[in-house]
Amino acid sequence: MNQSIYELRGIKHCYGDLVALGIEGISISSGTITGLVGPNGSGKSTLLRLLSFLEKPSQGEIYFRGNRIESSTLSARLQVTLLNQEPYLLKRSVMENIAYGLKVRGKNQGCEGRVQEALSWVGLPPREFAHRQWYELSGGEAQRVALASRLVLGPRVLLLDEPTSSVDATSATLIKEASLRAREQWGTTLLIASHDWSWLNEVCDEVLHLFRGNIIGSGMGNAIFGPWSNRSDGFSERRLASGKAIVVTAAPNEESVAVINPGSVSIHTDTSTEEVQKNALLGTISALALQKRSGKVLVTVAVDSIYFHAELSDNEVRDRMLFPGRHAWVCFHPRDISWV
Amino acid sequence: MNYILEGLIKAFQLLVRGDPETFSAIRVTLQVSTYSMVASLCLGLPLGFLLGYSNFPHKKMVRTLVDTLLSLPTVLIGLIVYAFVSYRGPLGELGLLFTLPAIAVGQTILALPIVVALAATAVESLDQRLHTTLLTLGANRRQFLLTNLWEARFGLLAAGVTAYGRVLTEVGISMMVGGNIKWHTRTITTAVALETGKGQFGMGIALGLVLMVIAFTVNLSLFFLRRRTRH
Q: What chain A residue is nearest to B141 in terms of C-alpha separation?
């Protein structure tokens, strides 16, 4: 088991009266890749800002490599770096942008060579790009330069906040590859907030699911949002646009969020008698992805605007002939739901 | 129309011949505006940075005051400086009245609010993501401040250039506290005013042309700076 690089205890972070984050405790192992998923406003970016020591939590303690850290601790900040969704480039050349972090650390020796290497990692030919000015880059190129300026530091921790959400497909692929290369090269611990579930599922050792500032579970959980209405049989339901209803155990309140483990969801191409007794929702398979840890296949099915994830064995996927684009039934029992 | 044409011809003759009186006014103008710009930049840039960057009680009030001082009339500044440096004034013993330092003090008062206000705006308009970027790349406090200044460099330069344009073209302060003394405190603007009054259009036009060339150069550089800051 790897040593913990981060340990968070009793974290609560507020912006005014708004509680942006509330985490009882998590531990992140050194050299691992952790994914953060959750809807916008779920606290992913706030968590990354705390982990990059840009902000101090309103309550609670963050331990980094066993030491309690204050937000102003420069030595910890020098080991951790954060790449935002929309990065800022200094009003300088690409070369100077990437070299900035090295220069503030006093690492001027061999600076040019390291900058060129970082540029090639993110797929930008150094000869062509090193002397370009900040305003001579496209959005995807700027994001890659920003990533290169982090990678050149050989960071112990690289925090990525939706790094591929506003770039083209080529840039996204290069950013993903370069990030993973950092772990191979230096054993960098990666924390990635992203909506790209299949990527996270493919590369992450663990995926944390955030909702309204709380970690509601690890793995690729299914979150089903309200509004819920109570039924006469003691269950609650949410009506979909198609007229179908998702039936769950009695909802604590109208806006509660139902969570169901992907292991409790099954996917079928026809509905058996047994399955009909449960929720059986017709949708379209949108993705299949091999899970790194379990070796199982994560099948994603879109039902109206809701995406359900189910964990199936490779045999089940093969036998049921599941592939993207095929219509399939998402089945789960109301009792397998938990509430947040 | 003839006298204007004659004035233009005379102006070129004065400039080409290197007329001492004309060039004395040019030298005095450049000398005194350099004094006042050095003083206003040394004081104004740090103050503008503080005003734009930091938060303190009554900041909005201070900002409003600085903005109000932007439209301070030169004759009022001349009057105030005159009151202080005249022989009966509190600084009368320093013997500053009708000297270049007295004009420089007045012009510094004129330029200071411009430098402070525009520098504050330049710093305020820095992208908020810059702060996060610098911290996450490992900048310490000193590197953080210096990089912020460097990122605002075009805005800060524009503040200096704008203030220089104002200082160069003012006439009220130079006239009131400089006294428009030939060979000593006569600047381009006061000379133009005097010579025009005397009907000597040649020297007036010659000095006016020089002023135009300097003002054009200053404004041209400002134009290029503004274009760069847009990126």
A: A74
Q: For the domain made up of A4-211, give the CATH fold.
A: Rossmann fold (3.40.50)
Between A278 and B83, residue with greater pLDDT: B83
Say if the Cβ atoms of B143 and A153 lie within 8 Å.
no
Token representation of residue A93: 């050349």
- Give the integer Cα–Cα distance in Å for A81 and A273: 54
pLDDT digits (tens, 9 = 90+) for B22-67: 899 999 999 999 999 999 999 999 999 999 988 899 999 999 999 9
For residue B140, which residues of chain A lie inside 8 Å, CB to CB? Answer: 74, 104
- C-alpha B37/C-alpha B51 separation (Å) is 20
- Residue A132 forms contact with B (CB below 8 Å): no
By C-alpha distance, the chain A residue nearest B147 is A90
Q: How many CB pairs under 8 A join A and B?
A: 54
Q: Which 3 state secondary structure label does DSSP give A86?
A: coil
Does A2 have pLDDT greater than 80?
Answer: no
CATH code for the structural domain at B2-229: 1.10.3720.10
Closest CA relative to residue B37, chosen from B115, B100, B99, B97: B115
Over 90: is that where the pLDDT of A192 sits? Answer: yes
Is B125 at the interface with chain A, CB within 8 A? Answer: no
CATH topology of domain A220-339: OB fold (Dihydrolipoamide Acetyltransferase, E2P) (2.40.50)
Tokens of B93: 């013993």
Domain boundaries, chain B: 2-229
> Under an 8 A CB cutoff, do A82 and B139 touch?
no
